[in-house]
């Protein structure tokens, strides 16, 4: 459903959120290993998330990536939009470059509600809530 960039970005944010609750910071290598992602790709994603002010970073021997209090309220939807743009929320179901209510693809009208439901769900889902569910083992990221 998500691009690999968004998938790894969400997983990285969740991993960093769990580490940040204990006032710890995580390095790129640690994050990449934890989310089963290539290290250079993870570094690029983390750099973009940092540039978009969605994750914090500190350089130096005690440095790494971390979240602050307000960051736990960031929605999954905001992460997806920061990394992938709004294509998931507005794009054509069949990938047509021109698809609208006045010139719809065969699936346009059916997907209007689906896209809105996806947008609503992802914008309601917060990093802090998802992280808490992981800590309580109500959800999981690895088998």
Automatic annotation (TrEMBL):
TM spans (from-to): none
Signal peptide range in chain numbering: none
Cross-referenced InterPro entries: Tscrpt_reg_Rrf2, WH-like_DNA-bd_sf, WH_DNA-bd_sf
GO terms assigned for molecular function: DNA-binding transcription factor activity
A GO CC annotation given for this chain: cytosol
Pfam families: Rrf2
PANTHER family in alphabetical order: HTH-TYPE TRANSCRIPTIONAL REGULATOR YWGB-RELATED (PTHR33221:SF15), WINGED HELIX-TURN-HELIX TRANSCRIPTIONAL REGULATOR, RRF2 FAMILY (PTHR33221)
Name the UniProt record assigns to this protein: Putative Rrf2 family transcriptional regulator
């Amino acid at each position: 459903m998500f691009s690999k960039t968004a998938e790894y970005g969400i997983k990285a944010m969740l991993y960093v959120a769990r580490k940040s609750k204990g006032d710890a910071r995580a390095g790129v290598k640690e994050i990449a290993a934890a989310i089963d992602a290539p290290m250079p790709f993870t570094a690029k994603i983390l750099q973009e998330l940092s540039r978009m002010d969605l994750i914090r970073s500190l350089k130096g021997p005690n440095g790494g990536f971390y979240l602050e209090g307000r960051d736990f309220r960031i929605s999954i939807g905001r992460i997806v939009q920061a990394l992938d743009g709004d294509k998931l929320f507005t794009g054509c179901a069949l990938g047509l470059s021109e698809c609208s209510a006045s010139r719809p693809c065969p699936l346009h009208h059916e997907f209007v509600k689906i896209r809105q439901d996806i947008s609503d769900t992802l914008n309601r889902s917060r990093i802090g809530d998802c992280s808490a569910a992981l800590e309580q083992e109500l959800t999981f990221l690895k088998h």
